[in-house]
Amino acid sequence: MDCARPPAPVTALLRLCLHALLGGLLALAAVRAVGDGAPRAGAVVALAVLMAVVYAVGVALRPVRPRTPAAALWLGALGVVWLALLVVSSDALWTAFPLYFLLLHLLALRWALPAVLGTAGAAIASFVLHGQQVTPGAFIGPLLGAAVAVATVLGYDALYRESERRRELIDELVATRAELAEAERTAGTLAERERLAREIHDTLAQGLSSIQLLLRAAERALPAGDPARAHVEQARRAAQDNLAEARRFVKALTPPDLEHGSLAGALERLCSGAPGPAVQFGVSGTPVELPTPYEVALLRVAQSALANTVQHAAAGRAEITLSFMDTSVALDVVDDGRGFDPAARRPKEPGGFGLPAMRSRALSLGGTLSVESAPGQGTAVAITLPLPVAGAR
Protein backbone atom coordinates (compact mmCIF):
# COMPACT_ATOMS: atom_id res chain seq x y z
CA MET A 1 0.00 0.00 0.00
CA ASP A 2 2.69 2.44 -1.06
CA CYS A 3 1.85 6.03 -1.90
CA ALA A 4 3.35 8.49 -4.36
CA ARG A 5 4.05 11.00 -1.60
CA PRO A 6 5.53 10.30 1.83
CA PRO A 7 2.66 9.62 4.24
CA ALA A 8 1.78 12.27 6.75
CA PRO A 9 2.21 11.38 10.45
CA VAL A 10 -1.56 10.97 10.91
CA THR A 11 -1.84 8.72 7.83
CA ALA A 12 1.08 6.59 8.97
CA LEU A 13 -0.51 6.19 12.42
CA LEU A 14 -3.81 5.11 10.85
CA ARG A 15 -2.01 2.50 8.77
CA LEU A 16 -0.23 1.14 11.80
CA CYS A 17 -3.56 0.90 13.60
CA LEU A 18 -5.05 -0.96 10.63
CA HIS A 19 -2.12 -3.41 10.57
CA ALA A 20 -2.40 -3.96 14.32
CA LEU A 21 -6.19 -4.44 14.12
CA LEU A 22 -6.00 -7.08 11.40
CA GLY A 23 -3.12 -8.90 13.11
CA GLY A 24 -4.87 -8.81 16.47
CA LEU A 25 -8.13 -10.19 15.05
CA LEU A 26 -6.31 -13.02 13.26
CA ALA A 27 -4.41 -13.85 16.43
CA LEU A 28 -7.70 -13.81 18.39
CA ALA A 29 -9.30 -16.27 15.96
CA ALA A 30 -6.28 -18.63 16.20
CA VAL A 31 -6.02 -18.43 20.01
CA ARG A 32 -9.76 -19.03 20.50
CA ALA A 33 -9.71 -22.02 18.15
CA VAL A 34 -6.81 -23.60 20.07
CA GLY A 35 -8.18 -22.67 23.50
CA ASP A 36 -11.68 -24.01 22.80
CA GLY A 37 -10.30 -27.21 21.33
CA ALA A 38 -12.11 -26.72 18.04
CA PRO A 39 -11.98 -29.76 15.76
CA ARG A 40 -10.35 -27.74 12.98
CA ALA A 41 -8.06 -25.68 15.20
CA GLY A 42 -4.98 -26.58 13.11
CA ALA A 43 -6.67 -25.38 9.92
CA VAL A 44 -7.71 -22.15 11.65
CA VAL A 45 -4.15 -21.46 12.83
CA ALA A 46 -2.66 -22.31 9.42
CA LEU A 47 -5.13 -20.12 7.52
CA ALA A 48 -4.71 -17.25 10.01
CA VAL A 49 -0.92 -17.40 9.58
CA LEU A 50 -1.31 -17.63 5.77
CA MET A 51 -3.61 -14.60 5.72
CA ALA A 52 -1.15 -12.65 7.86
CA VAL A 53 1.69 -13.56 5.48
CA VAL A 54 -0.31 -12.59 2.37
CA TYR A 55 -1.23 -9.31 4.05
CA ALA A 56 2.37 -8.57 5.03
CA VAL A 57 3.63 -9.33 1.51
CA GLY A 58 1.08 -6.94 -0.02
CA VAL A 59 2.03 -4.20 2.42
CA ALA A 60 5.72 -4.61 1.59
CA LEU A 61 5.34 -4.74 -2.21
CA ARG A 62 5.78 -1.36 -3.94
CA PRO A 63 3.53 -2.22 -6.95
CA VAL A 64 0.55 -2.54 -4.61
CA ARG A 65 -0.81 0.98 -4.96
CA PRO A 66 -4.34 2.38 -4.98
CA ARG A 67 -6.22 1.88 -8.28
CA THR A 68 -3.66 -0.54 -9.76
CA PRO A 69 -4.04 -4.13 -11.06
CA ALA A 70 -1.48 -5.32 -8.50
CA ALA A 71 -3.68 -4.04 -5.69
CA ALA A 72 -6.73 -5.82 -7.15
CA LEU A 73 -4.81 -9.11 -7.41
CA TRP A 74 -3.52 -8.79 -3.87
CA LEU A 75 -7.01 -8.09 -2.53
CA GLY A 76 -8.33 -11.10 -4.47
CA ALA A 77 -5.72 -13.40 -2.92
CA LEU A 78 -6.36 -11.95 0.53
CA GLY A 79 -10.13 -12.39 0.05
CA VAL A 80 -9.77 -16.04 -0.98
CA VAL A 81 -7.73 -16.84 2.14
CA TRP A 82 -10.21 -14.90 4.31
CA LEU A 83 -13.19 -16.82 2.86
CA ALA A 84 -11.40 -20.10 3.57
CA LEU A 85 -10.74 -18.94 7.13
CA LEU A 86 -14.37 -17.86 7.41
CA VAL A 87 -15.46 -21.41 6.52
CA VAL A 88 -13.44 -23.02 9.34
CA SER A 89 -13.87 -20.29 12.02
CA SER A 90 -16.81 -18.09 12.91
CA ASP A 91 -14.40 -15.67 14.61
CA ALA A 92 -12.92 -14.75 11.21
CA LEU A 93 -15.95 -12.58 10.46
CA TRP A 94 -14.51 -9.82 12.70
CA THR A 95 -11.64 -9.33 10.26
CA ALA A 96 -14.21 -7.98 7.80
CA PHE A 97 -13.93 -4.54 9.42
CA PRO A 98 -10.25 -3.89 8.50
CA LEU A 99 -10.95 -5.47 5.10
CA TYR A 100 -13.56 -2.76 4.45
CA PHE A 101 -10.88 -0.08 4.80
CA LEU A 102 -8.48 -1.96 2.53
CA LEU A 103 -11.09 -2.27 -0.20
CA LEU A 104 -12.07 1.39 0.02
CA HIS A 105 -8.45 2.53 0.02
CA LEU A 106 -7.13 0.42 -2.85
CA LEU A 107 -10.08 0.13 -5.22
CA ALA A 108 -11.94 2.78 -7.19
CA LEU A 109 -15.16 3.77 -5.48
CA ARG A 110 -17.37 2.12 -8.13
CA TRP A 111 -15.65 -1.21 -7.38
CA ALA A 112 -15.00 -0.69 -3.69
CA LEU A 113 -18.65 -0.24 -2.68
CA PRO A 114 -19.85 -3.57 -4.20
CA ALA A 115 -16.78 -5.31 -2.73
CA VAL A 116 -17.56 -3.92 0.74
CA LEU A 117 -21.18 -5.01 0.40
CA GLY A 118 -20.07 -8.51 -0.68
CA THR A 119 -17.67 -8.72 2.27
CA ALA A 120 -20.46 -7.75 4.66
CA GLY A 121 -22.71 -10.41 3.04
CA ALA A 122 -20.01 -13.07 3.52
CA ALA A 123 -19.68 -12.09 7.19
CA ILE A 124 -23.44 -12.38 7.67
CA ALA A 125 -23.52 -15.76 5.87
CA SER A 126 -20.90 -17.11 8.28
CA PHE A 127 -23.50 -16.95 11.08
CA VAL A 128 -25.72 -19.37 9.16
CA LEU A 129 -22.81 -21.56 8.11
CA HIS A 130 -21.62 -22.10 11.68
CA GLY A 131 -25.08 -22.59 13.11
CA GLN A 132 -25.04 -19.39 15.14
CA GLN A 133 -28.31 -17.97 16.39
CA VAL A 134 -29.60 -15.58 13.74
CA THR A 135 -30.52 -12.26 15.34
CA PRO A 136 -30.97 -8.71 14.02
CA GLY A 137 -27.49 -7.98 15.33
CA ALA A 138 -26.05 -10.58 12.98
CA PHE A 139 -27.24 -8.45 10.06
CA ILE A 140 -26.89 -5.00 11.58
CA GLY A 141 -23.33 -5.48 12.89
CA PRO A 142 -21.51 -6.16 9.58
CA LEU A 143 -23.67 -3.69 7.67
CA LEU A 144 -23.16 -0.99 10.31
CA GLY A 145 -19.41 -1.62 10.26
CA ALA A 146 -19.42 -1.30 6.46
CA ALA A 147 -21.37 1.96 6.66
CA VAL A 148 -18.95 3.37 9.25
CA ALA A 149 -15.96 2.39 7.11
CA VAL A 150 -17.46 4.00 3.97
CA ALA A 151 -18.35 7.21 5.82
CA THR A 152 -14.90 7.38 7.43
CA VAL A 153 -12.99 6.88 4.19
CA LEU A 154 -15.16 9.28 2.19
CA GLY A 155 -14.89 11.90 4.93
CA TYR A 156 -11.12 11.49 5.11
CA ASP A 157 -10.82 11.80 1.32
CA ALA A 158 -12.86 15.02 1.37
CA LEU A 159 -10.69 16.46 4.15
CA TYR A 160 -7.53 15.43 2.29
CA ARG A 161 -8.66 17.09 -0.93
CA GLU A 162 -9.54 20.26 0.94
CA SER A 163 -6.16 20.19 2.67
CA GLU A 164 -4.40 19.78 -0.67
CA ARG A 165 -6.32 22.71 -2.14
CA ARG A 166 -5.34 24.87 0.80
CA ARG A 167 -1.72 23.75 0.51
CA GLU A 168 -1.69 24.67 -3.19
CA LEU A 169 -3.25 28.05 -2.43
CA ILE A 170 -0.63 28.68 0.25
CA ASP A 171 2.15 27.69 -2.14
CA GLU A 172 0.75 30.04 -4.78
CA LEU A 173 0.47 32.82 -2.20
CA VAL A 174 4.08 32.33 -1.07
CA ALA A 175 5.28 32.26 -4.68
CA THR A 176 3.26 35.39 -5.51
CA ARG A 177 4.64 37.20 -2.48
CA ALA A 178 8.17 36.22 -3.49
CA GLU A 179 7.60 37.45 -7.04
CA LEU A 180 6.10 40.69 -5.74
CA ALA A 181 9.03 41.22 -3.38
CA GLU A 182 11.48 40.56 -6.22
CA ALA A 183 9.61 42.98 -8.49
CA GLU A 184 9.67 45.63 -5.76
CA ARG A 185 13.40 45.09 -5.22
CA THR A 186 14.02 45.35 -8.95
CA ALA A 187 11.93 48.49 -9.23
CA GLY A 188 13.71 49.99 -6.23
CA THR A 189 17.09 49.13 -7.70
CA LEU A 190 16.22 50.71 -11.04
CA ALA A 191 14.83 53.81 -9.34
CA GLU A 192 17.98 54.15 -7.24
CA ARG A 193 20.17 53.73 -10.29
CA GLU A 194 18.24 56.47 -12.07
CA ARG A 195 18.49 58.75 -9.04
CA LEU A 196 22.23 58.21 -8.71
CA ALA A 197 22.75 58.79 -12.43
CA ARG A 198 20.72 62.00 -12.22
CA GLU A 199 22.57 63.19 -9.12
CA ILE A 200 26.00 62.44 -10.60
CA HIS A 201 25.08 64.21 -13.83
CA ASP A 202 23.49 67.23 -12.15
CA THR A 203 26.17 67.72 -9.49
CA LEU A 204 29.55 66.11 -10.11
CA ALA A 205 29.50 66.09 -13.90
CA GLN A 206 28.12 69.62 -14.19
CA GLY A 207 30.52 70.87 -11.53
CA LEU A 208 33.54 69.30 -13.18
CA SER A 209 32.42 70.64 -16.55
CA SER A 210 32.17 74.14 -15.08
CA ILE A 211 35.59 73.78 -13.45
CA GLN A 212 37.05 72.70 -16.77
CA LEU A 213 35.56 75.72 -18.58
CA LEU A 214 36.83 78.12 -15.90
CA LEU A 215 40.32 76.61 -15.97
CA ARG A 216 40.33 76.86 -19.75
CA ALA A 217 39.42 80.56 -19.51
CA ALA A 218 42.11 81.08 -16.88
CA GLU A 219 44.64 79.29 -19.06
CA ARG A 220 43.88 81.64 -21.96
CA ALA A 221 44.13 84.67 -19.68
CA LEU A 222 47.59 83.79 -18.41
CA PRO A 223 50.53 85.16 -20.39
CA ALA A 224 52.79 82.72 -22.22
CA GLY A 225 55.62 81.50 -20.07
CA ASP A 226 53.78 82.13 -16.81
CA PRO A 227 54.77 79.37 -14.30
CA ALA A 228 51.13 79.02 -13.20
CA ARG A 229 50.03 78.13 -16.73
CA ALA A 230 51.39 74.57 -16.44
CA HIS A 231 49.55 74.03 -13.12
CA VAL A 232 46.32 75.41 -14.57
CA GLU A 233 46.64 73.10 -17.59
CA GLN A 234 47.32 70.13 -15.31
CA ALA A 235 44.27 70.97 -13.19
CA ARG A 236 42.11 71.32 -16.32
CA ARG A 237 43.23 67.91 -17.57
CA ALA A 238 42.51 66.37 -14.16
CA ALA A 239 39.03 67.90 -14.24
CA GLN A 240 38.55 66.62 -17.79
CA ASP A 241 39.62 63.10 -16.80
CA ASN A 242 37.32 63.11 -13.77
CA LEU A 243 34.48 64.42 -15.90
CA ALA A 244 34.96 61.48 -18.27
CA GLU A 245 34.99 59.12 -15.29
CA ALA A 246 31.76 60.64 -13.95
CA ARG A 247 30.13 60.17 -17.35
CA ARG A 248 31.22 56.52 -17.30
CA PHE A 249 29.53 56.14 -13.92
CA VAL A 250 26.35 57.67 -15.32
CA LYS A 251 26.53 55.32 -18.32
CA ALA A 252 27.01 52.31 -16.02
CA LEU A 253 23.83 53.29 -14.15
CA THR A 254 21.81 53.45 -17.34
CA PRO A 255 18.50 51.49 -17.19
CA PRO A 256 18.60 48.05 -18.86
CA ASP A 257 16.40 49.30 -21.72
CA LEU A 258 19.16 51.71 -22.73
CA GLU A 259 22.17 49.52 -22.02
CA HIS A 260 22.28 47.79 -25.40
CA GLY A 261 21.29 50.55 -27.79
CA SER A 262 20.14 54.09 -28.36
CA LEU A 263 17.05 55.82 -27.04
CA ALA A 264 15.40 55.41 -30.44
CA GLY A 265 16.10 51.65 -30.36
CA ALA A 266 14.66 51.35 -26.85
CA LEU A 267 11.51 53.24 -27.89
CA GLU A 268 11.12 51.09 -30.99
CA ARG A 269 11.37 47.92 -28.88
CA LEU A 270 8.81 49.40 -26.48
CA CYS A 271 6.36 49.98 -29.35
CA SER A 272 6.84 46.55 -30.91
CA GLY A 273 6.34 44.74 -27.59
CA ALA A 274 3.37 46.75 -26.34
CA PRO A 275 0.14 44.77 -25.81
CA GLY A 276 -3.22 46.05 -26.94
CA PRO A 277 -3.33 48.75 -29.62
CA ALA A 278 -1.01 48.90 -32.61
CA VAL A 279 1.80 51.34 -31.79
CA GLN A 280 3.92 53.13 -34.40
CA PHE A 281 7.24 54.81 -33.71
CA GLY A 282 8.92 57.56 -35.67
CA VAL A 283 11.90 59.90 -35.41
CA SER A 284 11.98 63.42 -36.87
CA GLY A 285 14.92 65.75 -37.19
CA THR A 286 18.60 64.93 -36.91
CA PRO A 287 19.31 62.72 -33.87
CA VAL A 288 21.95 64.01 -31.47
CA GLU A 289 23.59 62.38 -28.49
CA LEU A 290 21.62 63.05 -25.32
CA PRO A 291 22.80 62.90 -21.72
CA THR A 292 21.74 59.73 -19.92
CA PRO A 293 19.25 61.56 -17.60
CA TYR A 294 17.51 62.93 -20.71
CA GLU A 295 17.28 59.48 -22.29
CA VAL A 296 16.01 57.96 -19.03
CA ALA A 297 13.36 60.67 -18.60
CA LEU A 298 12.10 60.36 -22.18
CA LEU A 299 11.99 56.57 -22.00
CA ARG A 300 10.16 56.52 -18.67
CA VAL A 301 7.58 59.06 -19.85
CA ALA A 302 7.00 56.98 -22.99
CA GLN A 303 6.57 53.84 -20.88
CA SER A 304 4.16 55.55 -18.47
CA ALA A 305 2.07 57.20 -21.17
CA LEU A 306 1.88 54.00 -23.22
CA ALA A 307 0.94 51.99 -20.11
CA ASN A 308 -1.91 54.43 -19.43
CA THR A 309 -3.01 54.06 -23.05
CA VAL A 310 -3.08 50.26 -22.79
CA GLN A 311 -4.83 50.16 -19.42
CA HIS A 312 -7.29 53.04 -19.58
CA ALA A 313 -7.71 54.49 -23.09
CA ALA A 314 -9.23 51.49 -24.95
CA ALA A 315 -7.39 52.81 -28.00
CA GLY A 316 -7.18 51.13 -31.39
CA ARG A 317 -3.83 52.68 -32.31
CA ALA A 318 -1.14 54.87 -30.79
CA GLU A 319 1.93 56.68 -32.06
CA ILE A 320 5.19 57.70 -30.39
CA THR A 321 7.33 60.35 -32.06
CA LEU A 322 10.82 61.43 -30.99
CA SER A 323 11.64 64.88 -32.41
CA PHE A 324 15.07 66.52 -32.46
CA MET A 325 14.99 70.30 -32.93
CA ASP A 326 17.63 73.00 -32.88
CA THR A 327 17.42 73.76 -29.17
CA SER A 328 15.21 71.02 -27.73
CA VAL A 329 14.12 67.42 -27.97
CA ALA A 330 10.50 66.37 -27.72
CA LEU A 331 8.59 63.12 -27.26
CA ASP A 332 4.91 62.85 -28.25
CA VAL A 333 2.61 59.94 -27.33
CA VAL A 334 -0.74 60.15 -29.13
CA ASP A 335 -3.64 57.68 -29.07
CA ASP A 336 -7.19 57.52 -30.44
CA GLY A 337 -8.72 56.22 -27.21
CA ARG A 338 -11.65 57.39 -25.12
CA GLY A 339 -9.78 60.41 -23.78
CA PHE A 340 -10.50 62.31 -20.56
CA ASP A 341 -10.79 65.78 -19.11
CA PRO A 342 -7.33 66.78 -17.82
CA ALA A 343 -8.79 69.56 -15.70
CA ALA A 344 -11.08 67.15 -13.85
CA ARG A 345 -8.45 64.48 -13.37
CA ARG A 346 -7.45 63.79 -9.79
CA PRO A 347 -3.75 64.09 -8.92
CA LYS A 348 -3.47 60.36 -8.29
CA GLU A 349 -5.49 57.35 -9.30
CA PRO A 350 -5.17 53.89 -7.74
CA GLY A 351 -2.94 51.76 -9.90
CA GLY A 352 -2.14 54.67 -12.27
CA PHE A 353 1.29 55.78 -13.39
CA GLY A 354 0.36 59.40 -12.78
CA LEU A 355 0.82 62.53 -14.86
CA PRO A 356 2.40 64.30 -11.86
CA ALA A 357 5.32 61.85 -11.95
CA MET A 358 5.87 62.53 -15.66
CA ARG A 359 5.66 66.27 -15.11
CA SER A 360 8.14 66.00 -12.25
CA ARG A 361 10.65 64.28 -14.54
CA ALA A 362 10.28 67.01 -17.12
CA LEU A 363 10.66 69.82 -14.60
CA SER A 364 13.75 68.22 -13.04
CA LEU A 365 15.53 68.66 -16.39
CA GLY A 366 14.17 72.13 -17.11
CA GLY A 367 11.52 70.88 -19.52
CA THR A 368 7.75 70.90 -19.78
CA LEU A 369 5.00 68.30 -20.03
CA SER A 370 1.72 69.03 -21.78
CA VAL A 371 -1.42 66.91 -21.98
CA GLU A 372 -4.15 67.47 -24.54
CA SER A 373 -7.28 65.36 -24.31
CA ALA A 374 -11.06 65.44 -24.29
CA PRO A 375 -13.67 62.73 -23.76
CA GLY A 376 -13.98 60.69 -26.93
CA GLN A 377 -11.15 62.52 -28.73
CA GLY A 378 -8.03 60.61 -27.70
CA THR A 379 -5.03 61.84 -25.74
CA ALA A 380 -1.72 63.50 -26.62
CA VAL A 381 1.12 63.63 -24.09
CA ALA A 382 4.19 65.68 -25.03
CA ILE A 383 7.41 66.22 -23.11
CA THR A 384 9.91 68.85 -24.29
CA LEU A 385 13.44 69.13 -22.90
CA PRO A 386 15.94 71.85 -23.78
CA LEU A 387 19.11 70.52 -25.38
CA PRO A 388 22.10 71.02 -23.11
CA VAL A 389 24.78 73.47 -24.08
CA ALA A 390 27.67 71.80 -25.90
CA GLY A 391 30.32 70.72 -23.42
CA ALA A 392 27.91 70.70 -20.47
CA ARG A 393 27.00 67.03 -20.73
List the helices and strands and how they pair.
Layout: H1 9-35, H2 41-60, H3 69-88, H4 96-106, H5 109-129, H6 136-221, H7 227-252, H8 256-259, H9 263-272, E1 278-284, H10 292-313, E2 317-324, E3 328-335, H11 355-364, E4 368-373, E5 379-386
Parallel strand pairs: 1-2
Antiparallel strand pairs: 2-3, 3-5, 4-5
Write down the overall geometry: elongated
Largest sheet at a glance? 5 strands, mixed
The first-to-last residue Cα distance is 75 Å
Quickly count the helices. Answer: 11
Q: State Rg.
A: 42 Å
Number of strands: 5
Instruction: Indicate the structural class.
Output: alpha+beta
Q: Give me the strand/helix succession.
A: HHHHHHHHHEHEEHEE
Report the portion of residues in β strands.
5-15%
- The percent range for helix content is 55-70%
Residue ranges: pLDDT <50 for 5 or more in a row?
A: 1-7, 346-353
Give the overall average pLDDT.
80
Strand order of the largest sheet: 1-2-3-5-4
